């Protein structure tokens, strides 16, 4: 359970970073 929750957190963080990168590129 902990690992799964941790994975979700990483995925969310990656999504945020990706969105930020897109905005920066734009």
Q: Estimate the mean pLDDT confidence.
A: 80
Structural class by secondary-structure content: mainly alpha
Task: Please state the CA-atom Rg, rounded to the nearest Å.
Answer: 11 Å
Largest sheet: none
Broad shape? rod-shaped
Q: First CA to last CA: what distance? A: 38 Å
Helix content: over 70%
Unreliable residue stretches = none
**H and E string:** H
Q: Strand percentage, roughly?
A: under 5%
Secondary structure tally, helices:
1
- Give the number of DSSP strands: 0
Produce a short descriptive summary.
Residues 1-26 are annotated as: Disordered. The protein is mainly α and 26 residues long.
What does this protein look like?
With 26 residues, the protein is mainly α. It is built from 1 helix and no strands. The longest helix is centred in the middle third of the chain and has 24 residues, at 2-25. The N and C termini lie far apart (38 Å). The model has no long low-confidence stretch (mean pLDDT 80).
Q: Which keywords apply here?
A:
rod-shaped; mainly alpha; 26 residues; single chain
Topology:
Layout: H1 2-25
Region (Disordered): 1-26
Biased composition (Basic and acidic residues): 1-20
